[in-house]
Fold:
Amino acid sequence: MGWHSWSAEATVHETAGVDLTVFVDVLFNLLFFFMLTAGMAQHMVLEVQLPQVKGRQVSPQSADPVVSLTQKGALRWGGKELSLNVLLEKLQTLPPADRQRIWLQADGRASHGDVARVMGKLQQISEHIFLVTTAQ
Structure:
């Protein structure tokens, strides 16, 4: 048999574990790398070439109703603010010849959903809806 030393140093057990220092170093290096390179990435911009329209300019006639849609979605007709249902009722009381063409003058900052909703309802009354947007 072999000789064994039973000194005090041999009886101390070290706990086994994983050293996370290397993992944390690699993690911080990756984070630093992606933070630096993210700012250098070029963002792709898609340029859209809109067609040029050539045609005659159409403006409302005196009998054509002009409905205004504000930025906040409020409807005005004849200087009065009306709800959509009341507006539709009043437009339906007009003679068919006078509501053949309805003009919707929408604020350019109005939400697309409001404009689409109003145009959809106006199409139930008239064949031709003309949309005019303004910056105000």
Notes: The first strand starts at residue 66 and ends at 69.
